[in-house]
Amino acid sequence: MPHLGPITIVTFLPAATALVLLVVPGLSERLWKHAAVASTVVTFLFSLRLFQGFDPTRTGYQFVEHVPWIPDYGIHYFVGIDGLSLLLVVMTTFLMPVTLVAAWNDVHRSVKSYVFFMLTLETGMLGAFVALNLFQFYVFWEVMLIPMYFIIGIWGGPRRVYAAVKFFLYTMFGSLLMFVAILVVYGLHSQQFGQPNLDLVAAPGTSLPGLLDTTIPLAGQAVWWKTQTWLFAAFALAFAIKVPMFPFHTWLPDAHVEAPTSGSVILAAVLLKMGTYGFLRLGVPLFPAAAIEFTPIIFGLALVGILYAALVAMVQADVKKLVAYSSVAHLGFVMLGMFAFNLEGVKGSILQMVNHGLSTGALFLLVGMIYERRHTRQIAQFGGIAKPMPVYAAMFGVVTMASIGLPMLNGFVGEYLILLGTWLASPWVSSAAAFGVVLAAVYMLWMYRRVFFGPVENPENRGLIDLDLREKLVMVAVVLPIVWIGAYPDYLLRRLDASVIDVLRRVEAASAQAASAPVTVDATRPGAALAFAHEAEGSR
Amino acid sequence: MVEAARALPTLAATPSTLLRWIPLLPLIAAVVHGVMLGLLRRTLSRGAVIALSVGSVIASFLLSVVAFGQLIGLPEGQRAFVDDVYTWIGAGRFSAEMSFLLDPLSAVMILVVTGVGSLIHVYSVGYMDDDHRDDKGFQRFFCYLNLFTFSMLMLVLGDNLLVLFLGWEGVGLCSYLLIGFWYMDKWNAYCGSKAFIVNRIGDFGFLLGIFLLFSSLAAAGHPTVAFRDIAAAFPRIAEQTVQMPDLLGGGEWKLATLIGVLFFVGAMGKSAQIPLYVWLPDAMAGPTPVSALIHAATMVTAGVYMVCRLNFVYTAGPGAAALVAWIGGVTALFAATIAITQTDIKKVLAYSTVSQLGYMFVAAGCGAFSGAIFHLATHAFFKALLFLGAGSVILAMHHEQDVDKMGGLRKAIPITHWTFLVGVLAISGIPFFSGFFSKDEILLAAHGAEQIPGHEALWAIGLFTAGLTALYMFRLYFRTFHGSFRGTSEQLHHVHEPAQTVLVPLVVLAVLSAAGGLIGVPQVYGDILGVKNANSLAHFLAQVVGLHEAEVPQAEELRLAALAVLVASIGIALAWWLYVQAPSVPQRVRESVGWAYRLLFGKYYVDELYDMLFVNPLKWISENVFYKGVDAGLVDGVLVNGSANAVQAVAARALKYLQSGFAQSYLFFMVAGALAIVAWLVV
Amino acid sequence: MVPLSHVIWLSAALFTIGVIGALTRRNLIVILMSIELMLNAVNLSLVGFARVWGDLGGQVFVLMVIAVAAAEVAVGLGIVISLFRNRDSVNVEDVSLLKW
Q: Which structural domain range is residue B498 located in?
């Protein structure tokens, strides 16, 4: 029995709690809820230990654990974190207890199953973030689908079944193509190194190179389905659906509107990040040349997503749907920064993943709180809410401002770095995307005005009760990091350097190679050239 | 990055940890209020609020004075304090420090901001006591006001573009919150959002300006956003040109011009210049102290400050400078014409503010940056005075703002009347009041700005606007304080001079408005009186913005000043004739040129035009084409549900009969299949 | 010693009986028994082959199958009982809800 590493504990603690609860008979629903919150809080504390022990100056993965699982097929239990996964892991473990506490009264039917699904969901998400073996990644990637499917399908709104099936099929459609691509990469790797291995990188203490060391043919060097272009396309489709990028986004508004509050929060805050994380962890490093090749397409789709989703959000009558469309726009920014392929853009993009998780998560929490009171989310039903619910209005205001990128709150830092990075890659794209920031202010403020300001015209809004202690605690817990990241983002940004430089080096090498070999992809973006050369590794 | 910066001849700065406390004090007060109200739902007592809020701003003012004193103590040419707190954002070559810079330019600004700010805080105590609305909130008001002071101080003290931008957006937020302070009124809330969004459009240009400036400097090996480094490195990129795309007319632009234009788009939003001025008149929906502090004295001048801060960009980019000057000139005239017809006392002052900001941009565009800052300071005095005076009138009239319902108030509220008159004289440019010196400096700069195309026309516009300014300000003055009372008798009965806290700031500001011009007396008067370096402000600012030497003969300069005074006097005389002597004339004029009057009274229908051109089409397209067409129709309807429906159709027609529900028929198929496979293998 | 062919014939006969039983009977208990019959037919042939080839693997496999079959019967009977409680019937024709 190998020693349990910190990552394993963080990953499996929630699921282990769920299993224990399942086998111990006669526990009350209340106890289940308490146990779930306790377990997620402990998970969060453990993940803070990871944060504390993380050495920002080191390149490569830390807290690595490598145990054979099905070694004959190159399948290992292989986990480790770098700056990218560290941030996402801590964000996930942080949001989980917050969400559970916030949704304390949200679920009335089959509370035990709900708790069970939430806990397994957390393990699924964390497992995907820390997995360094492609098979393991795929397993966790699919594992988290199932609890979310049930959470939407059982505890959702009136059209929950439609939304759940749509969510499931959409995601499944992409991931199956990705699975095929994984098998192809696996085959190429075995061919080149003679030994099966699905680890991303060579595990410490072993000599077998990982998948990232595989030479994957460029267009024209092999049959089409073995080339980077098509493999990247398969991965990209899976991730683009999850992100979601325009035009694969239509599952998102439905899923969000129908999901219960906690489902929406986790869906927006964490599950969507799987897509962007996948691009950065797998898509780009595995197929850097193809990633460069696809940059114009990704830029185009991200840009369309930003502007289009903002415009569509503007005309929504349902607050939750509005927030859902705003998610599409925000994630467009994340994609934009990532494919700028410079330190500014990619670091901004990663930070924006966390920012979006916090601010959009908080927005969904807030929408859930008013829904619990009024059982409606139609903007037209509200108006003047600031009078009966000043604390709620204040919290909503802060989060709204974070979401539209006000400096000193978290959204600004990410958006700014993304736009700057994009500008360095392509000023025109950046200019157009910056207009999305204007539109964000339009739809968020318009919504805020119609919900909170004006006279209280609807008599049902007159007797609304302001946030209680539990809800206040939840909101404070979310708003604090929002302010903290806005005021001192460098604390997190510093931890990203090593992993981002690693990804950029691969892109760099591919772009240099492409420039020298005339047969292959045309280097659409020579601007990627050594954007980070000035930055001595970990010098700050 | 550090090494690159070191190679530049950057101005050395003395470290000082004092600076951070200047913005921090109001922030602490704002945070305390914010947590109390926004989280605990507890209100502090009135006294505690006053002590905390007013106290923190006054403390901040005192610190500013101390810092100013220390700055003066440094040798000329090296006057700069820097307070480096921590690294705010760092990524790749980009790095923004949370650091503050006190140089002559920011010193003038913090004195204006905290000085006028303190007075208006004091005034607000009296003003907000009188608030009887449902959505009143004494502490909430001071929370926002403190937050505003913090943001404004960040804006002017920031050592780099990012901290400036932080303050820039922060003041926008506070403006939004304060315009919509009485949030239960839909109109106020609308005006607040409008202000924020129009400002955002400007910020869009500002952001692109930062990006272009940073990327150009980075390409030249100096990736920096810190002002002193930019100033040092800018000459290395100043002569570069950019190929513009055909969409924007093509051709080669000077890089400096393009950067200058982008930053100026930001200034258009914040400082309410054409075409983004539309939010400022509506901003008058906020409480009057807010109009005085934010929408007259400080926030709206941020654009002027920014242009002066980046003066080297505009010096190197004549195209941008010309744009700044002309937009300023046209805005000045345009707003002044609207102001003539407005009847809301605050609306008149709002358009007047737009017009005066235009003046400042004329100066900045013509290269007279110290002139722009000078007018900024004097305008802060007299416009704050006028707004506070208007607020005092509004209090006296029980929240009546329509001058058509006032008149003859000079006896009822004498202190307000006299201080208001000082403000009116100052803004009209009557000799030796503060506005006289600063406006003359601007007109002189426009007159001599050979580098600006059509600078003589610009000067003529400025002169004509000066006349209009005198006309509409005296119109306002006469309509309010002279003639007979036109309101209800009950209103008249209640007219009274407001509380001491309201009156003291008025008096102090009146003194400043009258005498504030002495900080920047043009040298021509200095020569007459035998004083060297009479324009102490210009010399003080020279380190940052350079010295703008007017190359006009003394006699010419005096002649121009006299002309300006003459034009202003004509305006005053006209106002006196129209509104005191022959009050029936305006009515007849109105009737004879009805279309022109309606055009002006309707503010040229710009709001309606914007709605028609941008707002409504965008909403329509979003709703009908994007949401209903693309999202629901194309993607969901055709692709997603369409494919599902296709599968369903096939299944419903043919495949469903295979699914009988009997386990045994399934088993039968299985066995039959197995047998078929066996048969195939055997045969 | 019984020749292998006998074993196979017996096994095939049992299997066929099982298949026909499972296909034609309507009583769930009988169907379950038929399935058991098929399993045991396979077991028989496994044991037979194991002896002929002298490979213990076949016998081990049989033990495995028996264990699985036991579990399967337990689950199967459980389902039958809960079905009976709900519907008062163990006739498969009464449980044909899973269809179009």
A: 317-516+548-601
Based on its alpha-carbon atoms, the radius of gyration of chain C, rounded to whole angstroms, reads: 17
Structural domain includes residue B13: no
What was the ipTM of the complex prediction? 0.90
- How confident is residue A116, by pLDDT bands cut at 50, 70 and 90? very high
From the CA of B638, how many Å to the nearest CA of chain A?
12
pLDDT the model gives residue A173: 86
Residues of C in contact with B663 (CB under 8 A): 31, 92, 95
Radius of gyration for the alpha carbons in chain B, expressed in angstroms and rounded:
30
Chain B, residues 78-117, CB within 8 A of chain A, namely 86-94
Domain boundary among B556, B571, B601: B601
Rounded Cα gap, residues B585 and B603, in angstroms: 22
Specify whether B477 is located in the same domain as B611: no
pLDDT tops 90 at residue C39: yes
- Condensed to tens digits (0 to 9), the pLDDT of residues B327-371 reads 999 999 999 999 988 888 999 999 999 999 999 999 999 988 988
Measured between alpha carbons, how far apart are the two ends of chain A, in Å?
A: 40
Identify the weakest region by mean pLDDT among A68-77, A132-141, B143-152, B606-615: B606-615
Contact C96 B659 (CB under 8 A): no
Choose among B401, B428, B443: nearest CA to B336: B428
C31 vs B: CB within 8 A: yes
**B58 occurs within a structural domain:** no
Interface probe, candidates B650, B660, B664, chain C, greatest C C-beta count within 10 A: B664
Using CA atoms, how far residue A31 sits from A21, A25, A27, A473, C14, in Å, is 9, 12, 6, 21, 54
Tokens of B31: 């945070």
Residue in chain B nearest A406 by alpha carbon: B169
C28 reaches B (C-beta below 8 A):
no
pLDDT band at residue C98 under the 50/70/90 scheme? low
Alpha-carbon distance C47 to nearest alpha carbon in chain B (angstroms): 22
The verdict on B559 and B610 lying in the same domain is no
Instruction: Specify if B54 maps to a domain.
Output: no
Is residue B451 assigned to a domain? yes
pTM: 0.88
Chains near B with 3+ CB pairs less than 8 A apart are A, C
Test C100 with B656 for CB contact under 8 angstroms: yes
pLDDT in tens, B487-511: 777 777 778 888 888 888 999 999 9
Which residues in chain A have their CB less than 8 angstroms from residue B185's CB? 454-455
Q: Give the three-class secondary structure for B106.
A: helix
Q: How many CB atoms lie within 10 A of CB B470?
A: 26
- The answer to whether B661 contacts C99, with C-beta atoms less than 8 Å apart, is yes
Do A and C count as touching (3 or more CB pairs closer than 8 A)? no
Number of domains present in the structure of chain B: 2
Determine the pLDDT at residue A301.
Answer: 94
- Per 3-state DSSP, chain A is made up of helix, strand and coil in percentages (nearest 5) of 70, 5, 25
Partners of B102 in beta bridges: B81
Do C97 and B668 make contact, defined as CB atoms within 8 angstroms? Answer: no
